[in-house]
Structures are given as structure tokens and as C-alpha cells.
Amino acid sequence: MVFYQYKDGYRYNSDTIFLYDFISKYKISGSLLDVGSGCGILGLLIKRDFPKVDLTQIDIQEKNASLNKKNALANNQKSEIICDDFLEHTFEKKFDCIISNPPFYHEGSLKSEDESLFLSRHSLALQIDKFINKTYKLLKPKGSFMFCYDAKQIDDLLVILTQAKFKVNEIKFIHVNYEKLASLVMIYAKRESKSLCKVLPPLILYKQREYTDLVKYIYKKADANSENI
User: What is the per-residue pLDDT across 73-130, written as a single tens digit (0 to 9) for each?
Assistant: First the structure.
């Protein structure tokens, strides 16, 4: 698949590719909402792999929503694309599954002077507690919520999910190499679940300065190619 991106401004990165792989291991069906869709890559890759999914994508930035539409058309994938603030938007339906690569730069990090980058990267642009609480309300009974976040904030994240009445079913950490602390965490949570939490084997990105075989496989599976506009 080809994904058009703006030469200047926020661009999707490896986090989205790894999140796509994490999500695609589950049986995705019914209605799917992609929050903070950017150029549309995450939701459109899932739609490609699960063509019967009813896909909706939302992004607060008009330029991103426009790019999302362009990429959906270019890859012949059907998606309802909404340009609005997720927290303020009134959805006409509930969803079987919600996915997201939300902004998670924390309050102590440097804020970008570029408004577009700020909205795409910084947690202040989409506060995690409000995001999780609205997500819960938008899910159908037994609905699924899959997303990635800064691993260093896992303690606060689990508290917020529990307070929102989510049950965390699976967690997977991402490490740059075997010696580095986890940089990213991927979470699979559900409404009305009684399953015990599973901590999955970690994903290690590099071995001796080269991608591991698993990472190479994930990129090949995604088959995502960028074009600048």
C-alpha cells in the first residue's frame, strides 16, 4: 500500500507499524474506530487485512483528514473519515473495536512550536484519562480497545484503565535492544472481561545494529510505502 505524507509536518513512524502488527493478531470484525488517524495508515492497514470491517477514522486536523481521504482512495479502501475533536464529537453509533496511536509526550517534555506537531505528539492535546473514559463509553458490551503508549507511564495508564472499568487482557513491551529499557507498550483491553492479564514476550527491535528477523517480518507484512507531497 502507498501512503501519501506531507514532506513537512508529522509523519507516521515505526510505532504505528508495530501497533498494526499487534492489532492484526486478533480477530477484528464489526465496527472499528481509529482515533487520531493522521494520514490513515493504521486503520487502512487493518481494513486491508480484514475487509469486512466497517471502518471509521477521526482526526482533529483538517490537513490530516484530507490526507486520510486521499490515502483511502489511493488504496481502494472504504472509510468514513471525520474531521473533529474526538472528545467533543457526537458519534451516531457505538463500536466493536477502537484503536489508536495517541499523542503521549508527557507534560515535562518540550512542546513543539508547530501546532500540527503539538496536536500529533503531545499528551496535552488529548489527555489520556479523558480519552480512555470516552473510549469506554463508545464501545459496545465486550468491545475491544487496542493502543500504544509511552512505557514509562504504564503505572498511571493501568490506574486510569481500571478506574474507567476496562480489563487489561494483554500487554506487550517494545525494546530498542536487549539492554535498553522498554520504550513503548501496547495494550489490549476490553469491556466486561474476566480474563487474567497476559504479559506477552517483548518485541526487540535491534540486534547488533540490525533489525531483528521479527521486525523485518513485521515491515514486510505491513507492506507500507510512503510518498511525499
Answer: 999 999 999 999 999 999 999 999 999 999 965 555 445 455 554 454 444 557 999 9
d(CA 59, CA 61): 6
- How many C-beta neighbours within 10 Å does residue 169 have? 19
> Could you write out the DSSP letters of every residue in 64-105?
HHHHHHHHHHHTT---EEEES-TTT---SS-EEEEEE----B
Rounded to a whole number of angstroms, the CA Rg of the chain reads: 17
34 in Cβ contact with 42 (< 8 Å): yes
Q: How many whole angstroms separate alpha carbon 134 and alpha carbon 19?
A: 21
Calculate the dihedral angle through the C-alpha atoms of 168, 200, 97, 148, rounding to the nearest 10 degrees. Answer: 90
- CB atoms inside a 10 Å sphere around CB 49: 14
| Per-residue model confidence as pLDDT tens digits over 36-57 | 999 999 999 999 999 999 999 9
What domains does the chain contain, in order, with CATH numbers? 2-223 (3.40.50.150)
- Rounded to two decimals, the pTM is 0.90
The residues, any chain, with a CB within 8 Å of residue 46's CB and separated by 6 or more, are 20, 23, 24, 28, 32, 34, 53, 55, 99
Q: What CA–CA distance (Å, rounded) separates 61 from 48?
A: 24
> How far are the Cα atoms of 35, 92, 118 from residue 40, in angstroms, in the given order?
10, 21, 18
Burial class (CB in 10 A: 0-12, 13-18, 19+), 148: buried
